[in-house]
Amino acid sequence: MQKWVMSGLFFVACALALVLIFTLPGKDQVAQENKTQMPEVTLNAEQAEAVIKANCISCHGDQLEGLAGPNLQHIGATLSTEQLYKIISKGKGSMMPGFKDKLQDEEIANVALWLAEKK
């Protein structure tokens, strides 16, 4: 009786393993999903400032001097446009929320371009 139970459990474990092998995403697929592609935009400083005033000053201050969030006055010297785009889109840690669901990709790219010029 015990042999039947053990062989049944073994069969179920093998079947589950086969299902997982063919349904879980591969390493390349996960890397592609995590890659954030920044759209090409032309910098519009007025629009970027408006987006920042509406979404960022509560944490980063009205002069980007930093409050709850870090100082962004010279962030372009530290981070590239693509890095800024990724952080604004997806967020960073528990303090910086992602804005991908709140802002359009073009707005995020414009803000990233504007911040990248802050050197």
Automatic annotation (TrEMBL):
Keywords: Electron transport, Heme, Iron, Metal-binding, Transport. GO terms for cellular component: membrane. It comes from the Bacteria. InterPro entries: Cyt_c-like_dom, Cyt_c-like_dom_sf, Cyt_c_BACSU-c550-type, Cyt_C_IC, Cytochrome_c550/c551-like. Pfam families: Cytochrome_CBB3. Coiled coil: none annotated. Residues 43-119 form the Cytochrome c domain. Binds 1 heme c group covalently per subunit. Heme c binds at residues 56, 59-60, 95. GO terms for molecular function: electron transfer activity; heme binding; iron ion binding. PANTHER family: CYTOCHROME C-553-LIKE, MENAQUINOL-CYTOCHROME C REDUCTASE CYTOCHROME B_C SUBUNIT. This is Cytochrome c.
